[in-house]
Amino acid sequence: MKKKIIDFYKKISLIRIVENEISSRYNEGKMRCPVHLSIGQEASAVGICENLNISDRVYSTHRCHAHYIAKGGNINKMIAEIYGKKTGCCQGRGGSMHLFDESAGVVASVPIVSSSIPLAAGDALAIKLKNKKNIAVAFFGDGSIEEGIFYETLNFAILKKLPLLFVCENNQYSIMTHINERQPKNFIKKFDKLYDIDTYYCDGNKIDKVFNASKQAIKKIKNGGGPGMIVLDTYRFKEHCGPGDDLKLGYRSLKEFNYWKNKDPLNYCKKIITKNFINYKDLISKIDSENTKICNQAFKFAEKSPFPNKKDISLNVYCD
Q1: pTM for the whole thing?
Q2: Locate the Dehydrogenase E1 component domain: which residues (predicted)?
Q3: Measured on CA atoms in the order 61, 65, 71, 76, is the torsion positive or negative?
């Protein structure tokens, strides 16, 4: 774990630096799409993806930057996509909410709530029918648990013993409504009792806890144990959609916000490094510096890249 914590920090730091840069540049008006930032939720993405291989396949949501980066997606292509450029991972046609990189195993990011969950199940069914050893992973938020398709997919996955990992990132809010106003008390904590599916619950801001829980879940799924579920408690520091802060709106209190700020996954990771490495300051500084270079290069790449050509507008459009 001592060596692994450095790998964790590299990814969490990279996600934080890239998303902070998106936040600071967004009002320049060059990013032609909405952005849903994952700042504060990085440990859940990294903790899960550090246990996955390239051949394992990830499905994400509108808040997909962290999943894309954690799974090894190309940073240049991601920023170019957000800028709507031809060099983007979807050739500038998808934007922030539609990140895709087949070479990294990021199969789809879909903004409609819950809609990526059945896609992941379909992929898991194909994996099983072809007797492959990889798995599919569906990331979704706590709001997805209020959609019927979640239960239909859960039922199908359990019956067919699909190699599918359900990952619920419970960031407490569906846009601006707290989970306590939307679901029965602690409902999200009862899946192991309500359904015949192995379910792991842990603090989603503690990278070591997420890594260890997902390691167990993924190992069992890959050994033919059928689907698993992980519920991770976490919190977004930025507004639901956009680059800014939203405390002025009053739907969440400063006390609650500060509680979660004190649980910042980046700082938690730093504390582990501080305890385990004598030269921790130099180590952290070097990683942050390298990640800043990667980030800056990606924005330069996006700025210099061309927009898609109008004559290609019908390319990659499919119909029967």
Answers
A1: 0.96
A2: 11-309
A3: positive
